[in-house]
Amino acid sequence: MNIDSYNKWLWQEYEKTQDIRLLEQYVVSETIPPISDFGNAVKIIRENYRYHTNSTLLIIGSYLTSEWIFGDNELLEILNQMYSYLPEKEKAIVCYLNACQLRFKDEGYLSNPLYQKNLLESLKCKEAFVNNRVFLAELYEKEQSKKMFNEALTNIVKVYSYHDIERMTVEHFVEPQTFINEHILGTHISIVNHEILLNRIGGL
Predict the structure, then answer these.
(1) DSSP at 159
(2) 73 lies in which domain range?
(3) If DSSP codes are grouped into helix, strand and coil, which group holds residue 152?
(4) Rg for the chain (alpha carbons), in Å?
(5) For residue range 106-151, what is the model confidence (pLDDT) as tens digits?
(6) Residues sharing a CB contact under 8 Å with residue 204, sequence separation 6 or more, in sequence order
């Protein structure tokens, strides 16, 4: 089944069952090429989060809103209100998302002390996290930057080869954790993105 067919099936099944797992997968399926309808993914979350309070959907929606949607990020505001009740890993993600909101919406984010503060706060989590370290590396001078990039490398859990990607099923791609691992944490990346990271380190 291709992504378009699976996307339609997920929505039909969700409408019948109201199963939040199907809603999560449907939202993620909206972000996958050739659909890539980020605006609709956020719209679906906004229309449903009051009925399904779910940090996973809020995390994905907050990220998409920061990068792709003009206007306020009320999904991130909700996560900030939930912050003290979240597990350690999700607290780190929320801190990172606050940094992303500045990165994508504030032209002067590099000189905004809240940007670095949120990234540093996200480092407190002992779980693997790559992208926060990549962003921090951009703020530092050569030696400290290289150290942060190398920390990022050691936090990578999986580098997918071309063969790995070819063998992946649609079901794998629509998993919310797959989206979070790749786009937010950066712990599971393609060989192309891994090479880009290595080149950035080599260029220091």
Answers:
(1) E
(2) 3-202
(3) helix
(4) 17
(5) 999 999 999 999 999 999 999 999 999 999 999 999 999 999 999 9
(6) 142, 145, 146, 149
What tokens were used for 128?
């693997």
Q: How many domains does the chain have?
A: 1
**Residues with Cβ < 8 Å from 90, sequence gap 6 or more?**
55, 59
Is the pTM for the entire model greater than 0.85? Answer: yes
Nearest Cα neighbor of 184 from 134, 140, 126, 138 is: 134
- Three-state DSSP class for 33? coil
Displacement of CA 47 from its chain's centroid (Å) = 20
Write the DSSP string, 37-100: -HHHHHHHHHHHTTTS--HHHHHHHHHHHHHH--S--HHHHHHHHHGGGS-HHHHHHHHHHHHH
Hey, what amino acid is at 37? Answer: D
Q: Any idea which residue has 């590099």 for tokens?
A: 110
List the one residue out of 132, 131, 111, 110 whose CA is nearest residue 121: 132
> Are residues 93 and 185 in contact, defined by beta-carbon separation less than 8 angstroms?
yes
Q: What is the CATH number of the domain that holds 196?
A: 1.25.40
What distance in Å separates the CA atoms of residue 122 and residue 136, rounded to the nearest whole number?
A: 11
**Amino acid identity for residue 117 in this structure:** K
